[in-house]
Write a structure and sequence with these properties.
By secondary structure, this protein is mainly beta. It has 1 helix and 43 strands. The protein folds into 4 domains: 89 residues, Sandwich (Immunoglobulin-like); 102 residues, Immunoglobulins (Immunoglobulin-like), CATH 2.60.40.10; 107 residues, Immunoglobulin-like (Sandwich), CATH 2.60.40.10; 95 residues, Immunoglobulin-like (Sandwich), CATH 2.60.40.10. The termini are far apart.
Length: 473
């Protein structure tokens, strides 16, 4: 039969436990009530923190962008090719797809798509495709991810109406300058001219070896003879193997002969490497290399001609420029004909930040190179000025201070132990550790009257320093 906890028969231990439980229960209820009142009264919530340590493991799921599949095209078609595919079937949903037309060994953007302008759906029409045999590839895009699908079968494109380049762009074009005028003609499948006024013909880049941009009036309408004339077009990036594509609704497109875009005249200098230098003070050129390149207005490297580049720095220290690391001192570098760039190294004895500038006649200067120079290794000691006359038997005021310097006079962050000696009788603490390269001796005094006193500071292998003479009176 259970024992009643309130009865005399209940054990003392059981009674104590029940009393303790009853107190905890009432304290918990009271805490809840206090928290409820504080919350509704707008009191700031209480908080606590504690430190914990330990280890553990977890798992995370990863996903992959899958490529599209079943890329299909008709076996034959006119100048407008329908392309379809099955979308990516994975956990990562692509933001779109871009399509590439493969003609022989050349791959060109198709369907007006690109990695930056993908297609949302799973079908597209590639318009004004040149006659010939082509294949297609579709690539899925998700943020910076891409996944290329398989290449389609071939499609043979034939058309009753074609475009042809009646005249070609010149074989060599200067970047940013107009391409010589050329003409595109409407023709039948048998090569006969089609006379028709007002048909729009558009020019775009085909092969684009240097990721150039085609500028100018890209669409022209045909005259009464079915001819569209283009002038004033330009390409900004130098490269070899560019082609142009002519297209028009209802006509098979045409591809121009290949041509080369060469750089324009040099107009500026830029720093291609070494724009920020960091290193210890030195009397030799150890920082670099800094590479300067001459470019045209469109960012193309220019190799024509010779350019002499003058170098300068804002540093007040002893500085050196050299063509090679630890090399002989120079003040100019030369960009020779056949090259677009030249390099140099830099050295500086003054700690701090300096701006290095480069200048060449006729070329816009590059942004300055920033050189951050830190102190070299500790090399010597130096006293701050001591008054010519100090009071005898009284701590010298201001206190005697000694700095740790590198070989070039830059203050060094050091904790070296520094000891003082003198030809006069001195009292006080004669050895102190430097803090951030500075040791102060606030209780140092000259015992009795003296003249011609000098102090000497020593610290291991560091070069010693002697103060200027002073008298004690």
């Amino acid at each position: 039969m259970p024992t009643n906890a309130s009865s005399p028969e209940a054990t003392p231990r059981l009674r104590r436990e029940l009393v303790w439980f009853n107190w905890l229960l009432r304290a918990g209820v009271l805490a809840v009530v206090v928290l409820f009142i504080a919350t509704f009264a707008g009191a700031a919530p209480a908080s606590a923190h504690w430190r914990a340590s330990g280890s553990g493991s977890t798992t995370a799921s990863v996903a992959t962008l899958l490529p599209p599949t079943n890329v299909s095209v008709p076996a034959s078609n006119n100048s407008n090719v329908a392309v379809s595919w099955t979308g990516s079937n994975g956990a990562v949903v692509p933001t779109g797809y871009y399509v590439t037309r493969i003609s022989g060994s050349t791959a060109l953007p198709a369907c007006g798509s690109s990695p930056a302008a993908p297609i949302a759906g799973t079908t597209c029409t590639d318009s004004s495709v040149p006659e010939g045999t082509h294949r297609y590839q579709v690539t899925a895009v998700h943020r910076s991810w891409t996944a290329a699908g398989p290449v389609s079968g071939t499609v043979a494109v034939t058309s009753l109406r074609d475009l042809s380049f009646d005249s070609q762009p010149s074989g060599t074009v200067t970047s940013g300058s107009p391409i010589t005028s050329f003409r595109v003609q409407l023709r039948t499948a048998f090569g006969l001219e089609v006379w028709g006024r007002g048909v729009p013909v558009t020019i775009s880049l085909g092969a684009n070896p240097a990721a150039g941009t085609l500028s100018g009036t890209l669409t022209a309408t045909t005259d009464g003879w079915g001819t569209a004339t283009f002038s004033g077009l330009s390409i900004n990036k130098a490269g070899s193997g560019y082609t142009l594509i002519a297209s028009s609704p209802g006509y098979a497109g045409a591809v121009s002969s290949a041509f080369t875009v060469v750089p324009a005249a040099a107009s500026k200098l830029i720093v291609t490497s070494g724009a920020v230098l960091t290193g210890a003070a030195s009397s030799a050129a150890t920082l670099g290399p800094v590479t300067l390149q001459r470019q045209d207005a469109y960012g193309n490297a220019v190799t024509a001609g010779t350019s002499s580049v003058s170098l300068a720095t804002s540093s007040a220290g002893a500085t050196i420029f050299a063509a090679t690391a630890n090399g002989a001192k120079i003040s100019t570098v030369t960009i020779p004909a056949g090259s677009s760039s030249a390099s140099f190294f830099y050295g500086d004895t003054r700690a701090g930040t300096a701006a290095i500038t480069a200048a060449s006649q006729g070329l816009a200067a590059p942004a300055p190179v920033t050189a951050t120079i830190t102190a070299a290794a500790p090399g010597r000691l130096t006293f701050d000025a001591i008054p010519a006359v100090v009071l005898k038997n009284t701590p010298i005021t201001p206190p005697v201070t000694v700095h740790v310097l590198d070989a070039f006079g830059n203050r060094v962050d050091s904790s070296a132990q520094i000891m003082l000696q003198s030809n006069c009788t001195i009292k006080g603490t004669l050895m102190r550790a430097a803090s951030s390269g500075l040791a102060a001796f606030p209780d140092l005094e000259i015992a009795g009257k003296a003249s011609g006193c000098v102090l000497t500071a020593n610290s291991g292998t560091l070069a010693t320093d002697t103060s200027s003479p002073f008298n004690a009176d």
